[in-house]
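Morning. Coffee machine broken again, so started the prediction first thing and wrote up yesterday's gels while waiting. Chain of 70 residues, entered below exactly as on the submission form.
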Amino acid sequence: MEETLVSGIAVVLLWGDSGKVEAIIDWKSDVEVIPERVAQYVDQLRTYRDETGAERAILVFMTPSQVMQA
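Came back before lunch.
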């Protein structure tokens, strides 16, 4: 029997004392970080940031332990 592991995307909004979103954190479980896919994720995070008014958007790749700001 073959085992398949599946993981999802977690997005966290960090709210400030003013009630506004200060930061968005998005975790990705990609085993291989492919530049084209990273560009899609960064665009996605920029949209989240623009829509929420957040000051920062952070992209975390869990498997290779990389952190990027969008």
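DSSP finds one helix and four strands in the chain. Going to sketch it on the whiteboard this afternoon.
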